[in-house]
Write the C-alpha coordinates for this entry.
Amino acid sequence: MATQLERVGRKTLDQLDYLGSLSIQLWVTLRSMKKALPFVGNRYRWKASVDQMLQIGVDAFPMVALMAVASGFILAMQGASELRRFGALHYVIDLVAVGFTRELGPLLAAIAVSGRSGSAFAAEVGTMKVTEEIDALRVMAFDPVEFVLAPKYLAALVAVPCLSIISGVCGIVAGGIFMFFSTHLGFLLYLRYVLMSIELHDVVSALIKSIAFATIIAQVGCLEGFRVRGGPDAVGRSTTAAVVKATFLVVIADAVFTAIFYFMRKP
Amino acid sequence: MAIISIRDLVVEYDGRRILDGLNLDIEQGETMVLLGGSGSGKSTLLRQIIGLERPRSGTVIVKGTDINSCSQSELNHVRRSIGVTFQSGALFNSLTLEENVALNLREHTELAPPIIDLVVSMLLAAVGLSEFGKLRPQELSGGMKKRGAVARALALDPEILVFDEPSAGLDPVVAAELDELILLLKQVYQVTIVVVTHELTSAFMIADRMAMLYDGAFVAVGTKEEIKSSKNPHVQQFLDRIPGKIARTTEISNLFERYLEAPEVNQ
Protein backbone atom coordinates (compact mmCIF):
# COMPACT_ATOMS: atom_id res chain seq x y z
CA MET A 1 0.00 0.00 0.00
CA ALA A 2 2.78 2.38 1.00
CA THR A 3 4.65 1.56 -2.21
CA GLN A 4 1.55 2.28 -4.30
CA LEU A 5 1.03 5.61 -2.54
CA GLU A 6 4.69 6.39 -3.00
CA ARG A 7 4.40 5.67 -6.72
CA VAL A 8 1.29 7.84 -7.09
CA GLY A 9 3.02 10.62 -5.15
CA ARG A 10 6.13 10.41 -7.29
CA LYS A 11 4.10 10.44 -10.53
CA THR A 12 2.13 13.46 -9.30
CA LEU A 13 5.34 15.30 -8.41
CA ASP A 14 6.78 14.42 -11.85
CA GLN A 15 3.72 15.86 -13.60
CA LEU A 16 3.84 19.01 -11.47
CA ASP A 17 7.55 19.32 -12.25
CA TYR A 18 6.73 19.00 -15.96
CA LEU A 19 4.04 21.67 -15.80
CA GLY A 20 6.40 23.90 -13.80
CA SER A 21 9.15 23.47 -16.40
CA LEU A 22 6.65 24.22 -19.17
CA SER A 23 5.50 27.41 -17.42
CA ILE A 24 9.08 28.62 -16.78
CA GLN A 25 10.05 27.86 -20.37
CA LEU A 26 6.99 29.77 -21.65
CA TRP A 27 7.90 32.77 -19.49
CA VAL A 28 11.53 32.73 -20.69
CA THR A 29 10.35 32.40 -24.30
CA LEU A 30 7.95 35.34 -23.96
CA ARG A 31 10.83 37.43 -22.61
CA SER A 32 12.97 36.43 -25.62
CA MET A 33 10.22 36.94 -28.21
CA LYS A 34 11.17 40.56 -28.89
CA LYS A 35 14.42 39.33 -30.45
CA ALA A 36 12.48 37.24 -32.98
CA LEU A 37 10.22 40.08 -34.13
CA PRO A 38 10.81 41.95 -37.40
CA PHE A 39 12.30 45.50 -37.34
CA VAL A 40 12.81 45.63 -33.55
CA GLY A 41 14.50 42.27 -33.05
CA ASN A 42 17.50 40.38 -34.40
CA ARG A 43 17.17 39.95 -38.18
CA TYR A 44 18.65 36.43 -38.07
CA ARG A 45 16.02 35.29 -35.56
CA TRP A 46 13.31 36.84 -37.74
CA LYS A 47 14.74 35.03 -40.77
CA ALA A 48 14.70 31.78 -38.77
CA SER A 49 11.07 32.52 -37.79
CA VAL A 50 10.06 32.97 -41.43
CA ASP A 51 11.78 29.68 -42.35
CA GLN A 52 9.88 27.99 -39.55
CA MET A 53 6.59 29.58 -40.67
CA LEU A 54 7.11 28.04 -44.10
CA GLN A 55 7.84 24.65 -42.58
CA ILE A 56 4.98 24.71 -40.08
CA GLY A 57 2.41 26.46 -42.23
CA VAL A 58 3.03 26.14 -45.96
CA ASP A 59 4.33 22.58 -45.85
CA ALA A 60 1.38 21.46 -43.71
CA PHE A 61 -1.22 23.17 -45.91
CA PRO A 62 -2.05 20.19 -48.24
CA MET A 63 -2.36 17.80 -45.30
CA VAL A 64 -4.57 20.13 -43.26
CA ALA A 65 -6.74 20.98 -46.29
CA LEU A 66 -7.25 17.32 -47.15
CA MET A 67 -8.05 16.38 -43.55
CA ALA A 68 -10.54 19.25 -43.34
CA VAL A 69 -12.26 18.37 -46.62
CA ALA A 70 -12.59 14.72 -45.57
CA SER A 71 -13.90 15.71 -42.14
CA GLY A 72 -16.32 18.22 -43.74
CA PHE A 73 -17.83 15.46 -45.86
CA ILE A 74 -18.00 13.10 -42.89
CA LEU A 75 -19.72 15.67 -40.66
CA ALA A 76 -22.17 16.71 -43.38
CA MET A 77 -23.07 13.12 -44.30
CA GLN A 78 -23.43 11.93 -40.70
CA GLY A 79 -25.48 15.02 -39.82
CA ALA A 80 -27.66 14.67 -42.91
CA SER A 81 -28.46 11.02 -42.27
CA GLU A 82 -29.95 11.92 -38.86
CA LEU A 83 -31.43 15.36 -39.60
CA ARG A 84 -33.15 14.10 -42.78
CA ARG A 85 -35.43 11.93 -40.62
CA PHE A 86 -36.79 15.09 -38.98
CA GLY A 87 -37.00 17.07 -42.23
CA ALA A 88 -34.27 19.36 -40.99
CA LEU A 89 -31.64 18.81 -43.65
CA HIS A 90 -30.92 22.55 -43.88
CA TYR A 91 -29.48 22.42 -40.35
CA VAL A 92 -26.53 20.55 -41.83
CA ILE A 93 -25.30 23.99 -42.95
CA ASP A 94 -25.33 25.29 -39.37
CA LEU A 95 -23.74 22.09 -38.10
CA VAL A 96 -20.85 22.25 -40.55
CA ALA A 97 -20.37 26.03 -40.39
CA VAL A 98 -20.46 26.36 -36.61
CA GLY A 99 -18.69 23.03 -36.02
CA PHE A 100 -15.76 23.90 -38.28
CA THR A 101 -15.45 27.54 -37.27
CA ARG A 102 -15.55 27.00 -33.54
CA GLU A 103 -14.17 23.51 -33.15
CA LEU A 104 -12.94 21.30 -35.95
CA GLY A 105 -10.95 23.92 -37.86
CA PRO A 106 -8.57 24.75 -35.00
CA LEU A 107 -8.52 21.18 -33.67
CA LEU A 108 -7.67 19.50 -36.99
CA ALA A 109 -4.97 22.10 -37.70
CA ALA A 110 -3.50 21.60 -34.22
CA ILE A 111 -3.47 17.80 -34.55
CA ALA A 112 -1.73 18.04 -37.95
CA VAL A 113 0.86 20.53 -36.66
CA SER A 114 1.40 18.53 -33.49
CA GLY A 115 2.17 15.40 -35.55
CA ARG A 116 4.35 17.17 -38.10
CA SER A 117 6.04 20.06 -36.33
CA GLY A 118 5.79 19.12 -32.63
CA SER A 119 7.75 15.96 -33.33
CA ALA A 120 10.17 17.87 -35.58
CA PHE A 121 10.83 20.43 -32.81
CA ALA A 122 11.57 17.68 -30.29
CA ALA A 123 13.82 15.81 -32.73
CA GLU A 124 15.72 18.94 -33.76
CA VAL A 125 16.28 20.28 -30.24
CA GLY A 126 16.98 16.78 -28.88
CA THR A 127 19.59 16.15 -31.58
CA MET A 128 21.17 19.54 -30.84
CA LYS A 129 21.33 18.51 -27.18
CA VAL A 130 22.93 15.13 -27.93
CA THR A 131 25.47 16.58 -30.37
CA GLU A 132 26.45 19.30 -27.85
CA GLU A 133 25.11 22.09 -30.09
CA ILE A 134 23.05 23.50 -27.21
CA ASP A 135 26.19 23.55 -25.03
CA ALA A 136 28.06 25.21 -27.90
CA LEU A 137 25.40 27.92 -28.07
CA ARG A 138 25.72 28.58 -24.35
CA VAL A 139 29.53 28.81 -24.39
CA MET A 140 29.27 31.15 -27.40
CA ALA A 141 27.16 33.42 -25.13
CA PHE A 142 23.88 32.74 -26.95
CA ASP A 143 20.65 32.02 -25.10
CA PRO A 144 19.35 28.66 -26.47
CA VAL A 145 15.75 29.72 -25.80
CA GLU A 146 16.17 32.91 -27.82
CA PHE A 147 18.18 31.16 -30.54
CA VAL A 148 16.15 27.95 -30.94
CA LEU A 149 12.76 28.27 -29.29
CA ALA A 150 11.65 31.87 -29.85
CA PRO A 151 11.65 31.65 -33.70
CA LYS A 152 9.73 28.36 -33.56
CA TYR A 153 7.18 29.76 -31.13
CA LEU A 154 6.64 32.94 -33.14
CA ALA A 155 6.26 30.85 -36.30
CA ALA A 156 3.72 28.57 -34.62
CA LEU A 157 1.76 31.60 -33.34
CA VAL A 158 1.41 32.81 -36.92
CA ALA A 159 1.06 29.49 -38.76
CA VAL A 160 -1.42 27.62 -36.54
CA PRO A 161 -4.17 30.30 -36.62
CA CYS A 162 -3.70 30.58 -40.41
CA LEU A 163 -4.00 26.82 -40.77
CA SER A 164 -7.05 26.86 -38.51
CA ILE A 165 -8.77 29.36 -40.82
CA ILE A 166 -7.79 27.32 -43.89
CA SER A 167 -9.01 24.14 -42.21
CA GLY A 168 -12.34 25.78 -41.33
CA VAL A 169 -12.81 27.11 -44.87
CA CYS A 170 -11.99 23.74 -46.45
CA GLY A 171 -14.41 21.92 -44.13
CA ILE A 172 -17.20 24.39 -44.90
CA VAL A 173 -16.51 24.13 -48.65
CA ALA A 174 -16.75 20.33 -48.37
CA GLY A 175 -20.12 20.75 -46.63
CA GLY A 176 -21.24 23.00 -49.51
CA ILE A 177 -20.26 20.39 -52.10
CA PHE A 178 -22.22 17.76 -50.19
CA MET A 179 -25.27 20.03 -49.98
CA PHE A 180 -25.06 20.75 -53.71
CA PHE A 181 -25.06 17.07 -54.63
CA SER A 182 -27.66 16.02 -52.07
CA THR A 183 -30.13 18.95 -52.27
CA HIS A 184 -28.98 20.89 -55.36
CA LEU A 185 -28.43 23.92 -53.10
CA GLY A 186 -26.42 26.55 -54.99
CA PHE A 187 -22.98 27.28 -53.58
CA LEU A 188 -23.52 31.03 -53.23
CA LEU A 189 -26.76 30.46 -51.36
CA TYR A 190 -24.97 27.93 -49.18
CA LEU A 191 -22.31 30.53 -48.40
CA ARG A 192 -24.98 33.07 -47.49
CA TYR A 193 -26.51 30.59 -45.01
CA VAL A 194 -23.05 29.88 -43.63
CA LEU A 195 -22.40 33.58 -43.01
CA MET A 196 -25.78 33.87 -41.33
CA SER A 197 -25.07 31.00 -38.98
CA ILE A 198 -21.61 32.01 -37.74
CA GLU A 199 -20.86 35.04 -35.60
CA LEU A 200 -17.75 37.08 -34.93
CA HIS A 201 -17.59 35.50 -31.49
CA ASP A 202 -17.14 32.06 -33.12
CA VAL A 203 -14.18 33.27 -35.19
CA VAL A 204 -12.55 35.03 -32.23
CA SER A 205 -12.93 31.97 -29.99
CA ALA A 206 -11.38 29.81 -32.73
CA LEU A 207 -8.40 32.15 -33.03
CA ILE A 208 -7.92 32.24 -29.25
CA LYS A 209 -7.99 28.44 -29.21
CA SER A 210 -5.51 28.17 -32.07
CA ILE A 211 -3.06 30.52 -30.30
CA ALA A 212 -3.32 28.33 -27.20
CA PHE A 213 -2.77 25.21 -29.33
CA ALA A 214 0.29 26.79 -31.00
CA THR A 215 1.71 27.56 -27.55
CA ILE A 216 1.19 23.99 -26.37
CA ILE A 217 2.71 22.41 -29.50
CA ALA A 218 5.82 24.64 -29.65
CA GLN A 219 6.49 24.60 -25.92
CA VAL A 220 5.92 20.86 -25.40
CA GLY A 221 7.94 19.95 -28.52
CA CYS A 222 10.92 22.07 -27.49
CA LEU A 223 10.74 21.10 -23.80
CA GLU A 224 10.86 17.42 -24.75
CA GLY A 225 13.92 18.22 -26.87
CA PHE A 226 15.64 20.17 -24.09
CA ARG A 227 14.98 17.32 -21.63
CA VAL A 228 16.78 14.73 -23.76
CA ARG A 229 19.46 12.91 -21.77
CA GLY A 230 21.72 10.28 -23.31
CA GLY A 231 22.05 9.19 -26.92
CA PRO A 232 20.02 8.99 -30.13
CA ASP A 233 17.49 6.56 -28.64
CA ALA A 234 16.49 9.30 -26.17
CA VAL A 235 15.77 11.60 -29.14
CA GLY A 236 13.35 8.99 -30.52
CA ARG A 237 11.59 8.73 -27.17
CA SER A 238 11.34 12.51 -26.85
CA THR A 239 9.80 12.76 -30.34
CA THR A 240 7.07 10.27 -29.45
CA ALA A 241 6.49 11.95 -26.09
CA ALA A 242 6.20 15.36 -27.77
CA VAL A 243 3.41 14.19 -30.11
CA VAL A 244 1.53 12.27 -27.42
CA LYS A 245 1.74 15.01 -24.78
CA ALA A 246 1.02 17.88 -27.18
CA THR A 247 -2.02 16.14 -28.70
CA PHE A 248 -3.32 15.21 -25.24
CA LEU A 249 -2.87 18.76 -23.93
CA VAL A 250 -4.44 20.26 -27.07
CA VAL A 251 -7.60 18.19 -26.55
CA ILE A 252 -7.71 19.06 -22.84
CA ALA A 253 -7.18 22.76 -23.61
CA ASP A 254 -9.90 22.56 -26.26
CA ALA A 255 -12.35 21.15 -23.72
CA VAL A 256 -11.45 23.87 -21.21
CA PHE A 257 -11.80 26.68 -23.75
CA THR A 258 -15.05 25.26 -25.11
CA ALA A 259 -16.47 25.15 -21.59
CA ILE A 260 -15.32 28.73 -20.89
CA PHE A 261 -16.85 30.06 -24.13
CA TYR A 262 -20.05 28.06 -23.55
CA PHE A 263 -20.60 29.54 -20.11
CA MET A 264 -19.60 33.03 -21.33
CA ARG A 265 -22.30 32.91 -24.03
CA LYS A 266 -24.99 31.39 -21.78
CA PRO A 267 -27.74 34.01 -21.29
CA MET B 1 48.85 35.61 -12.52
CA ALA B 2 46.72 32.57 -13.31
CA ILE B 3 44.15 33.09 -16.06
CA ILE B 4 42.12 30.17 -14.72
CA SER B 5 42.09 29.41 -11.02
CA ILE B 6 40.21 26.47 -9.54
CA ARG B 7 39.77 26.35 -5.76
CA ASP B 8 38.34 23.49 -3.64
CA LEU B 9 36.03 22.44 -6.47
CA VAL B 10 33.50 19.78 -5.51
CA VAL B 11 30.96 18.42 -8.02
CA GLU B 12 28.31 15.85 -7.18
CA TYR B 13 25.66 14.17 -9.34
CA ASP B 14 22.81 12.54 -7.40
CA GLY B 15 24.94 12.40 -4.27
CA ARG B 16 27.85 10.78 -6.16
CA ARG B 17 31.05 12.80 -5.85
CA ILE B 18 32.60 13.36 -9.31
CA LEU B 19 35.20 16.01 -8.47
CA ASP B 20 36.59 16.05 -4.97
CA GLY B 21 38.10 19.34 -3.83
CA LEU B 22 40.23 20.22 -6.87
CA ASN B 23 42.77 23.03 -6.86
CA LEU B 24 44.57 24.12 -10.01
CA ASP B 25 46.08 27.27 -11.52
CA ILE B 26 46.47 27.60 -15.28
CA GLU B 27 48.88 30.34 -16.24
CA GLN B 28 48.39 32.72 -19.14
CA GLY B 29 49.89 31.41 -22.37
CA GLU B 30 50.51 27.85 -21.24
CA THR B 31 49.03 24.64 -22.63
CA MET B 32 47.54 22.61 -19.82
CA VAL B 33 46.51 19.04 -20.57
CA LEU B 34 43.97 17.45 -18.26
CA LEU B 35 44.75 13.77 -18.42
CA GLY B 36 42.82 10.85 -17.04
CA GLY B 37 40.99 7.66 -17.79
CA SER B 38 37.32 7.32 -18.70
CA GLY B 39 35.10 8.42 -15.81
CA SER B 40 37.92 10.20 -13.99
CA GLY B 41 36.03 13.51 -14.13
CA LYS B 42 38.06 15.40 -16.72
CA SER B 43 35.12 16.32 -18.97
CA THR B 44 33.14 17.39 -15.89
CA LEU B 45 36.05 19.63 -14.90
CA LEU B 46 36.07 21.09 -18.40
CA ARG B 47 32.34 21.85 -18.19
CA GLN B 48 33.00 23.65 -14.90
CA ILE B 49 35.77 25.75 -16.48
CA ILE B 50 33.50 26.92 -19.29
CA GLY B 51 30.59 27.54 -16.92
CA LEU B 52 28.20 24.93 -18.29
CA GLU B 53 27.57 23.44 -14.86
CA ARG B 54 27.59 24.74 -11.31
CA PRO B 55 29.62 23.00 -8.60
CA ARG B 56 28.37 21.89 -5.21
CA SER B 57 31.11 24.03 -3.66
CA GLY B 58 34.33 25.75 -4.58
CA THR B 59 35.17 28.38 -7.16
CA VAL B 60 36.30 28.62 -10.77
CA ILE B 61 37.86 32.00 -11.49
CA VAL B 62 38.43 32.82 -15.16
CA LYS B 63 40.18 36.11 -15.96
CA GLY B 64 39.47 37.34 -12.44
CA THR B 65 35.73 36.55 -12.57
CA ASP B 66 34.16 33.88 -10.40
CA ILE B 67 31.99 32.31 -13.09
CA ASN B 68 29.65 30.65 -10.60
CA SER B 69 28.65 33.77 -8.71
CA CYS B 70 28.79 36.39 -11.47
CA SER B 71 25.78 37.73 -13.39
CA GLN B 72 24.71 36.27 -16.74
CA SER B 73 26.09 39.29 -18.62
CA GLU B 74 29.46 38.96 -16.84
CA LEU B 75 29.47 35.24 -17.64
CA ASN B 76 28.71 35.99 -21.30
CA HIS B 77 31.54 38.53 -21.31
CA VAL B 78 33.96 35.87 -20.00
CA ARG B 79 32.59 33.29 -22.44
CA ARG B 80 33.33 35.56 -25.40
CA SER B 81 37.01 35.31 -24.50
CA ILE B 82 36.92 31.50 -24.47
CA GLY B 83 36.84 29.41 -27.63
CA VAL B 84 35.60 25.87 -27.10
CA THR B 85 36.02 22.87 -29.39
CA PHE B 86 33.70 20.09 -28.31
CA GLN B 87 34.40 16.38 -28.69
CA SER B 88 31.97 16.03 -31.61
CA GLY B 89 32.82 19.46 -33.03
CA ALA B 90 29.23 20.60 -32.26
CA LEU B 91 28.97 22.58 -35.48
CA PHE B 92 25.38 23.64 -36.14
CA ASN B 93 23.92 21.25 -38.69
CA SER B 94 21.44 23.83 -39.99
CA LEU B 95 24.29 26.13 -41.08
CA THR B 96 27.10 25.77 -43.59
CA LEU B 97 30.69 25.68 -42.35
CA GLU B 98 31.13 29.34 -43.34
CA GLU B 99 27.97 30.33 -41.50
CA ASN B 100 29.12 28.39 -38.43
CA VAL B 101 32.42 30.29 -38.36
CA ALA B 102 30.70 33.62 -39.10
CA LEU B 103 28.02 33.19 -36.42
CA ASN B 104 30.01 34.70 -33.53
CA LEU B 105 31.22 37.60 -35.66
CA ARG B 106 27.75 38.26 -37.06
CA GLU B 107 26.02 38.28 -33.69
CA HIS B 108 28.65 39.61 -31.28
CA THR B 109 30.43 42.25 -33.36
CA GLU B 110 29.51 45.26 -35.47
CA LEU B 111 31.76 44.17 -38.36
CA ALA B 112 30.47 44.78 -41.88
CA PRO B 113 29.52 41.65 -43.88
CA PRO B 114 32.51 41.94 -46.31
CA ILE B 115 34.91 42.08 -43.34
CA ILE B 116 33.20 39.07 -41.76
CA ASP B 117 33.55 37.16 -45.05
CA LEU B 118 37.24 38.03 -45.13
CA VAL B 119 37.83 36.92 -41.52
CA VAL B 120 35.91 33.68 -42.16
CA SER B 121 37.98 32.86 -45.24
CA MET B 122 41.19 33.58 -43.29
CA LEU B 123 40.10 31.34 -40.42
CA LEU B 124 39.09 28.52 -42.77
CA ALA B 125 42.44 28.85 -44.53
CA ALA B 126 44.22 28.69 -41.16
CA VAL B 127 42.62 25.30 -40.43
CA GLY B 128 42.98 24.06 -44.02
CA LEU B 129 39.30 24.11 -44.94
CA SER B 130 39.18 26.91 -47.51
CA GLU B 131 37.47 24.78 -50.13
CA PHE B 132 34.79 23.40 -47.83
CA GLY B 133 33.07 26.55 -46.55
CA LYS B 134 29.85 25.94 -48.47
CA LEU B 135 29.40 22.43 -47.11
CA ARG B 136 27.19 21.54 -44.16
CA PRO B 137 28.69 19.71 -41.17
CA GLN B 138 27.05 16.41 -42.11
CA GLU B 139 29.05 16.50 -45.37
CA LEU B 140 32.39 16.79 -43.55
CA SER B 141 34.63 14.06 -42.10
CA GLY B 142 35.27 13.82 -38.35
CA GLY B 143 38.65 15.55 -38.59
CA MET B 144 37.25 18.32 -40.79
CA LYS B 145 34.41 18.93 -38.34
CA LYS B 146 36.92 19.36 -35.52
CA ARG B 147 39.07 21.72 -37.56
CA GLY B 148 35.92 23.64 -38.50
CA ALA B 149 35.06 23.86 -34.81
CA VAL B 150 38.57 25.24 -34.15
CA ALA B 151 37.98 27.93 -36.80
CA ARG B 152 34.66 28.82 -35.15
CA ALA B 153 36.33 28.92 -31.71
CA LEU B 154 38.99 31.31 -33.02
CA ALA B 155 36.49 33.75 -34.55
CA LEU B 156 36.34 36.19 -31.63
CA ASP B 157 40.11 36.11 -31.09
CA PRO B 158 39.84 34.30 -27.73
CA GLU B 159 42.37 34.43 -24.91
CA ILE B 160 41.63 30.87 -23.89
CA LEU B 161 41.10 27.87 -26.16
CA VAL B 162 39.51 24.74 -24.74
CA PHE B 163 39.58 21.35 -26.46
CA ASP B 164 37.51 18.39 -25.32
CA GLU B 165 39.11 15.15 -26.51
CA PRO B 166 40.45 16.63 -29.77
CA SER B 167 41.80 13.35 -31.13
CA ALA B 168 38.93 11.07 -30.05
CA GLY B 169 37.55 9.03 -32.93
CA LEU B 170 40.22 10.17 -35.39
CA ASP B 171 42.82 8.06 -37.15
CA PRO B 172 46.45 8.63 -36.01
CA VAL B 173 47.36 10.77 -39.02
CA VAL B 174 44.39 13.15 -38.63
CA ALA B 175 44.94 13.21 -34.84
CA ALA B 176 48.58 14.21 -35.38
CA GLU B 177 47.47 16.95 -37.81
CA LEU B 178 45.14 18.31 -35.15
CA ASP B 179 47.95 18.25 -32.55
CA GLU B 180 50.12 20.22 -34.95
CA LEU B 181 47.28 22.69 -35.43
CA ILE B 182 47.04 23.18 -31.65
CA LEU B 183 50.80 23.82 -31.46
CA LEU B 184 50.54 26.26 -34.34
CA LEU B 185 47.65 28.11 -32.70
CA LYS B 186 49.67 28.53 -29.53
CA GLN B 187 52.61 29.86 -31.51
CA VAL B 188 50.59 32.24 -33.68
CA TYR B 189 47.81 33.42 -31.36
CA GLN B 190 49.72 33.19 -28.01
CA VAL B 191 46.58 31.83 -26.35
CA THR B 192 46.13 29.79 -23.19
CA ILE B 193 45.11 26.28 -24.19
CA VAL B 194 43.31 23.73 -22.04
CA VAL B 195 43.02 20.25 -23.51
CA VAL B 196 41.13 17.31 -22.05
CA THR B 197 42.38 14.01 -23.39
CA HIS B 198 43.30 10.45 -22.58
CA GLU B 199 45.55 10.11 -25.66
CA LEU B 200 49.10 9.97 -24.30
CA THR B 201 50.91 10.68 -27.58
CA SER B 202 48.78 13.75 -28.13
CA ALA B 203 49.12 14.91 -24.55
CA PHE B 204 52.92 14.70 -24.47
CA MET B 205 53.18 16.43 -27.84
CA ILE B 206 51.17 19.54 -26.99
CA ALA B 207 51.43 20.01 -23.21
CA ASP B 208 53.47 22.54 -21.28
CA ARG B 209 52.03 21.17 -18.05
CA MET B 210 49.74 18.27 -17.27
CA ALA B 211 47.28 17.45 -14.52
CA MET B 212 46.36 13.82 -14.04
CA LEU B 213 42.90 13.12 -12.68
CA TYR B 214 41.99 9.89 -10.96
CA ASP B 215 38.64 9.26 -9.31
CA GLY B 216 37.79 12.97 -9.22
CA ALA B 217 41.07 14.16 -7.68
CA PHE B 218 44.42 15.30 -9.05
CA VAL B 219 47.07 12.68 -8.43
CA ALA B 220 49.83 14.57 -10.23
CA VAL B 221 50.29 18.08 -11.61
CA GLY B 222 53.49 19.16 -13.33
CA THR B 223 55.55 19.39 -16.47
CA LYS B 224 55.74 16.51 -18.94
CA GLU B 225 59.00 15.34 -17.35
CA GLU B 226 57.54 15.53 -13.84
CA ILE B 227 54.52 13.49 -14.92
CA LYS B 228 56.72 10.92 -16.66
CA SER B 229 58.89 10.49 -13.57
CA SER B 230 55.94 10.49 -11.15
CA LYS B 231 55.98 7.66 -8.61
CA ASN B 232 52.23 7.79 -8.16
CA PRO B 233 50.89 4.27 -8.94
CA HIS B 234 47.84 5.63 -10.81
CA VAL B 235 50.05 7.79 -13.04
CA GLN B 236 52.41 4.88 -13.69
CA GLN B 237 49.52 2.56 -14.42
CA PHE B 238 48.05 5.09 -16.89
CA LEU B 239 51.33 5.86 -18.62
CA ASP B 240 52.37 2.20 -18.83
CA ARG B 241 48.87 1.16 -19.97
CA ILE B 242 48.59 -1.49 -17.27
CA PRO B 243 45.09 -3.01 -17.19
CA GLY B 244 43.01 -1.89 -14.23
CA LYS B 245 40.41 -3.63 -12.16
CA ILE B 246 37.93 -3.98 -15.03
CA ALA B 247 40.03 -6.29 -17.20
CA ARG B 248 41.25 -8.93 -14.79
CA THR B 249 41.82 -11.61 -17.39
CA THR B 250 42.50 -14.38 -14.89
CA GLU B 251 39.17 -13.75 -13.17
CA ILE B 252 37.34 -13.77 -16.50
CA SER B 253 39.00 -17.02 -17.64
CA ASN B 254 38.20 -18.60 -14.24
CA LEU B 255 34.55 -17.62 -14.73
CA PHE B 256 34.52 -19.22 -18.19
CA GLU B 257 36.10 -22.39 -16.89
CA ARG B 258 33.52 -22.65 -14.10
CA TYR B 259 30.74 -22.06 -16.63
CA LEU B 260 32.03 -24.75 -19.00
CA GLU B 261 32.43 -27.23 -16.17
CA ALA B 262 28.91 -26.66 -14.85
CA PRO B 263 26.69 -29.81 -15.17
CA GLU B 264 23.86 -27.79 -16.80
CA VAL B 265 26.19 -26.76 -19.67
CA ASN B 266 27.56 -30.27 -20.18
CA GLN B 267 24.17 -31.97 -20.36
The mean pLDDT of chain A is 93.
